[in-house]
Structure formats: structure tokens, C-alpha cells
Amino acid sequence: MQEFHRNVSISGSEEFTGIDLKEPIRVAAGALGVKEALRHSFKEMGIVRSMRALLEMNQKDGFDCPSCAWPDSEHPSKLGEYCENGAKALADEATIKKVDADFFKKYSVEKLSLLTDYQLNKFGRLVEPMVLRPGSIHYEPIEWQEAFDLISSELRKLDSPDEAIFYTSGRSSNEAAFLYGMFARAFGTNNMPDCSNMCHESSGVALGETLGIGKGSVKLEDLYKAEVIIVAGQNPGTNHPRMLSALEKCKKNGGKVISINPLEETGLVNFKNPQHLKGWISGEDMADLHLAVNINQDIPLVKLILKKLAVLDKKERTVFDHEFIETYTQGYEKLLADFDNYDEDELLCLSGVGLEKIEEAVSFLANKSKIIVCWAMGLTQHKNGVENIREYVNLLLLKGAIGKPNAGTCPVRGHSNVQGDRSVGIMHFVDEALNKRIEKHLGFKPPGKEGYDTVGAMKAMHDEKAKVFMCLGGNFLMAASDTEYTAKALQRCDLTVQVSTKLNRTHLVTGKTALILPTVGRSEKDMKNGQQRYFTVENSMGRVTQSKGLLKPASEKIMSEPELIAQLADTYFKGEHSMDWKVLGEDYNLIRQYIDKVAKGFEKTEERSKGPGYYLPNNVRELDFSKLPNGKAQITINNLPNHDLKEDEFMLMTIRSHDQFNTTIYGLDDRYRGVYNERRVLFMNSEDMESLNMKKLDVVNIRSNYDGQIRTAKKFLVIPYNIPKGNLAAYFPETNVLVPYNHFAEKSKTPISKSIKVTVKKASV
Ligand code: SF4
Question: Which of 117, 201, 204, 403 is the Cys-Cys partner for 214 at CB 3.0 to 4.6 Å?
Fold first, then answer.
């Protein structure tokens, strides 16, 4: 009998939406930022609900912004401690629009799949549990207990626990992530991929190898008095906007900012801080120096700067911190010797940056030691992502800019609690010490076999080695690489389960049976037996704080993540397990008591997470490298990237617009790049356009060819843009279809979304 197949579109509508091109706005935030924040908020939530919620976001007894992981000030401004994109994230979650059973009765998954991701997201909050049964194209309502029974029976049908996968997106609280991680282990698998596999896993691996911990070492206030802050492969103006306030403070204290990025992003050009009256009138110039490096050529750039610093140091022996190097590091001599293998002109040419700018960077760094390097996906999502980060760590180690105030590493996390999820146990690899604590305190023996990370999970589903896929938040299909491959993988599952707040494409491209389990938002009250519950999160700098919503939940039929997971586990184990899941789901204090015992560094979380919260242990801050070879921080040798581009190939990097957070599309504008009302755009250097005989707004197809397989992203409008020749940029998730699932960063397996080799051809329209 012909297997039933839902005719769903993987990419959705590819129709243009009526582009409007204007001069890019080269001033970040300011009055316009406030206007946009309020426009989105009032449109989705109404005025009163907006003002109530905005005044509580990131406040001491308020709720944590559901967007990025930039730390809140310990002294939040009563005026409002949020940015434009924080307000958009709140408006997106706290919208009063709802998606209920009537909605799904009216719209089939096939019909919905023809829309864009932006349109899907705008329908509103999911407000009741829904099931998509085999052979059906319409979701229908299901009771919570029936949903837990369905998942449990599918899990019991599996031949091995490793046929199930438990994915986590970085918005889940520490309490939810802890229970989820313990349920997966109690079920018998370490198949716990999470969104950091696709973003900062390269940072975790590189920092673990060189400094002994996979997290950054700086605290927020370190930035205020740094002498030099390098912002590499990051666009803070859009992705971590309150970081601009910290850079502004640094500059006011005489510090210098160096931006290293193929694109000169507005946030690092000029910033009008609306927290100050002056910020409404005039802005602060941000980067003192912009190095427009070629895509993924940070290693030649940094190696050249280090080589020049080494020459200066040879003369004066004051440029490098030799006492620090001798005391705390190893590998210095090898690195010096390795410099001789490289010709300065070759490094200069590869970097794409002018010699004058390089010399200026060297002059900024030569006599400074309070140096911080901040980075994001522009360093991590490459085949050599791990080495990119190690090369910047070399700079910090040679300068002794590690383990002291106003100096160190700062990988800026994209999702609000992605670091917390890992800290409380969401990981696909085996941590023996953690397993011992689980056995001791939770009374069961966790599995000892490494599980699937994100790429492994995609392949396991695609190869039908995994049959049940559960997602705690997120939009897996659109976040992952190789969209068509990932779609096939999901559709080959017997069951896919999404714990979500908003409708997205992963609800439409599903397993044979699919469940939508709607959950409580960050900004909403989480009540139990008349008591309000709070949860904890960990920000990008390792500080754990509490978060407590204030708004009435979107519906009475939604359930908090911790309670939902606990009830599922209680159903699966039929109430017979060493952990009393049901009680844990009701009383988060009990979860935190377990977290205190099992997760490293979380002692007395209940008490210490109050107010400004507390910092988790960080060996780098103590200059303790005892876990590393010879107890020393590692200076490493990193090779030049080899892209091997063909004559007609370009290097493409996927980027976010200013109206977007990860795969969530808030709007169709990108005012900092001058693009309005359109997402299918390709940013290209005008000389490259000329050489391809292309003119502005020509329609093109973008193709990648890896291992002989052609992948195509169809219909993009070419836009001349200030980007180095040979380099291209376009938005994700629309261009994730070009990224091959099996090409990723060595060791970390982070997809190569920032350096994809492509060709561009005019489309026949
Ligand atoms: S900087 Fe990040 S965490 Fe802070 S308000 Fe903006 S989006 Fe939210």
C-alpha cells in the first residue's frame, strides 16, 4: 500500500514581497530604535500590556528577556533595561493573537506550508495541545494525558533508547533543561543535541582545549574599562544590542574598539544610547578601526598581527607579557617558530585588509594588556571554526590578557539560556563525573555511550536509525543546515513532538504522527496551587539569575516546560522511578535542590540566584589551568583555511536581518542595510556584479556544489553592497538549504553556514 505522504512545501513561498531600497541607516538605536520597539510592542500586545511587560523585563524581580544572552546590568535602569530587539522578542511571545483548534481545522499543514516563515510566525500563540495523526493533514485537539500516553507508547515501541532524540533550544530554563536531560538519561540515551551545536560549539571546544572551560571568562563590567575590545565575526547592533552600551562605556573610559567583519555593521559605526538624553541628540562613534576581512580569513589576519607584534617585541620585550607566558602557558616557542612559515604579503592578501589598517591595529595592541575579544558566529560556523577562536586566544595569552580584570574571552551567546542548558546537563557527550553524581543523588545509572549532536541527529533520522524526535522549543527544520535533507529526516520519523509557543515550519514538516505541546512564555505568570513559580537562567558571562513573568498566560490549556516534562516522565515510568517526577514538576525548588547536587557550581541556587544573582565557577578567572596538559594554558598552532574556490565561485555567509532573532522573523525590514519589505536578497560587491553582467535587483539563483550534489536557493534579488570582492551575504533560514549537512567544523561539528562556496546565475523569471 502506497505510504501516505503530506504534500508540504519545505521552503514556503518564494514570492517577492515588494522590495524598497533606501540608504542604510548608519546610526544604531536612538529615537528610531525606541519607536520601532514600541511599534512592534503596541501592534502585538496593545499599549497597556506592552508598558506593563516592558517595565518588568530584565528587572531584578522581573523576567529575563527571551532573546539573546547578553547580561543584564546589576543596576538595571528603571526607565527600561531592554533594547529594540528585546522588545520585539517580547512582543513576539506576548502577542494577543492565538492559534487554536479552529485555526487548524481551517488550515491544513499543506496549505500553511505554502506561506513564508514570517507569515507563519505572525499567526500568534499556540494555545492548546494538538495532534497530527497518520494519514491526516489537519491538526486536531488532544488532551494532555492522551498526548503523554501517545509519546510514552511510541517510546516503549522502540528497539533501543537510542532510537529517540531529545533536542533542546536555548530558551528553556535551567529547571526545564535539567528535568529534560535527566529524563533522556533515565530513558536510556545521551541523544541530546542542542542549538549550541549549531552556533557556539566551536567556542566550547576551542576554549576547552586552550583554557580549560568552554565558556567566556569576562564579566560585564570588565568591558567598561578594557583598553582594547576586539569585536570579531559579530553584529552586536542587531544580535546583542545592549552590548553597545558596554562598548560606549569602554570608549568613554578611553578604550579602543576594533571591529573585524567582512561587513561594516551599523552597530559598530555609531550608537545613540536612548538611556541618556545626549543619546537622543547625538551618537557615539563606535569602532575606532574596522578591518573588512574576507570571509573566514581571520587566521591569516590575526597571524599577521601577531607576527608584527612579535617583531616589535623582539626589539623591546615589552609587547608580549613574558612573565605571564612563562608562568601560565605552554607552546610559545613553537608559535614563534611557526610564524617563520608564513610570508607577510601572503597573509595580507588572504586577509583582504590593507596594510595601513593592519599597522593601526598593531599600534592599538602593542602596549596594551587589558584586551577583550568578543565573537559570535562569524568565527564559529566554519570548517576551521575551532582554530579561528584558538588564534584569537593566542593573542590574549601572548598579551597576558587572561584571568585579570578588563581582559579575556567573550563568546557572546545568541540564545538567552543556551549556556545554562549545557551547565545543567544538556549534552550529547558523556561527562563521567556528572554521571557519578546522577547515580548518587538521583538513584539511576545514566548511559555511558556518546549520543547524537545536531548533525548526528539529522543523519540518524534520515537513515531511519531514529524514530522519535522531541524538541524542547526551537524551529529545528529552519535552524539546521541542509533544509531539504533535514526535512526528509523529520518526515521519516514515526513521531515528532514540538514543545513551542509560536507556530513555525517544523510543525508542518513532521513525522508520521506529530504533536504540538504549547508552553508558557517567559513573560507569563507560572502559577501552581495559587503560588507563583520562578525559574533560573544563566547569561553569556556565567551569571545565574531568577526570572518571573507577570502576564496572564496565553491560555489555561498551556503547560510550563518543567511540569510538562515531569508529567511525560511520570507517565512513561508509570510512577515507578527513583525520581518523583510528578512532585518535581509541581515544585521547582525541589528541582533546584537536585541541580545544586548534580550540576557543577550551582550550590544554594535558591538563595544565591535572587537579585543580581551569582557567577558560576570559572577556572580562567582564577588562572587555574590544572586540567590542561602540564597545568598550562595552551598556545596553539593554527593552519590557514583552505577554501580552494573555483574560478566562478564566491564565499557566502548567512546573516540575520535587523527584524529577526535566529529563525524567528519579526518583520521584513533591515534598515541598517537599507532593505525594506523583502528577505530574498543577495548582498554583492558592485564590481562582482559588473563582472557577472548583473544589475541591481536582477533575479538570481544561488547554488552550492558539495561532493557533486547541487543545492539551490532560488529567486534572490541582487543588491550592490559594501562587502569585499568575492564575498556574498544573504539571510538565513532562506539560504540554509545551501549548507551541506556533512560539511561542518572539525571537532565541534558546527555547520559551515558562514563560509559556503556558491555560484550565482541569473534566474529565468
Ligand atoms: S541585548 Fe539581548 S537580552 Fe538584552 S534586551 Fe536586547 S535582546 Fe534582550
Answer: 204
Q: What are the distances in angstroms from CA 141 to CA 81, 138, 184, 566?
A: 39, 10, 26, 21
With the CA atoms of 741, 721, 410 and 355 taken in that order, what torsion angle do they form, in degrees rounded to the nearest 10?
110
Phi then psi for 605, rounded to 5 degrees? -55, -40
Cβ–ligand 1 distance for 256 under 6 Å, the answer: no
Residues facing 21 on adjacent strands: 675
Return the amino acid letter for 602: F
Angstrom distance (rounded) from CA 137 to CA 107? 9
- Residue in the structure block whose three cell numbers are 576581512: 293
Which grid coordinates belong to 588? 521547582
Closest CA to ligand 1's atom 2: 68
The answer, yes or no, to whether residue 9 has pLDDT greater than 90, is yes
Please state the pTM of the whole predicted model: 0.97
Mutate to test the pocket of ligand 1, among 70, 412, 416 (most ligand atoms within 8 A of CB): 70
The per-residue DSSP string of 90-141 comes to HHHHS-S-EE-HHHHHHS-HHHHTTS-HHHHHTT-EE-S-EEE-TT-SS-EE
Domains and CATH numbers, the chain: 98-198+417-523+558-603 (3.40.50.740), 201-411 (3.40.228.10), 650-762 (2.40.40.20)
Span from the CA of 249 to the centroid of ligand 1 (angstroms): 17
Tally of CB atoms within 10 A around 333: 10
Per-residue pLDDT of 233-255, as tens digits, reads 999 999 999 999 999 999 999 99
Beta-carbon neighbour count of residue 285 at 10 Å?
12
- 3-state class (DSSP) for residue 269: coil
Is the shortest distance between the CB of 70 and ligand 1 below 6 Å? yes
Residue partners of 265: CB distance under 8 A and separation at least 6? 235, 236, 237, 238, 259, 672
**Is 3's pLDDT higher than 70?**
no
- What is the enclosing helix (H) or strand (E) of 24? none
The finding on whether 255 has its CB within 6 A of some atom of ligand 1 is no
**Does 1 score more than 80 pLDDT?**
no
What are the distances in angstroms from CA 338 to CA 211, 333, 345, 635, 692?
21, 9, 16, 12, 39
- Locate the ligand 1 atom nearest the alpha carbon of residue 66 and give its number: 8
Give the three-state DSSP class for 704.
strand
Half-sphere exposure of 709 (CA within 13 A, CB side): 13
- Write the CB contacts of 51 (distance below 8 Å, at least 6 apart in sequence): none
Pick from 456, 572, 522: which is nearest to 180 by CA? 572
Name the residue with the closest Cα to ligand 1, atom 3: 68
